[in-house]
Amino acid sequence: MTRDELLAHCLAKPGAWQDQPWEGDVVVKVGAKIFAFIGGPGSTTVGVKCAPSREAADEWLHRYPDDAAVMPYIGRSGWNTLRYGGAIPDDEIVEAVDESYRWVVSKLPKRDRPA
Asked: Fewer CB within 10 Å: C terminus or N terminus of the chain?
């Protein structure tokens, strides 16, 4: 999986749009909320909400200790950084992005959720 393929997958989600809140770093949002941190050119990681709690998100760290890490600043809320192109299979990266999207959409006010 490439960065462009991952970005295209994210942007194919209903209501998804690309933003660049920090110079050089791309994120994908639904409504006003980020569901994927893609990073800049050459990035091989994606930041996603893996679970509603830190304890549940730690499963990724146990399964892929060299390719999964707690995201700085927001990791306590269940966010991890996952490296693609390594030990984590592409289908699991896609599933993690899909799950992050679902978690974020579920927390949006109903009026802001994509149809």
From this structure: C
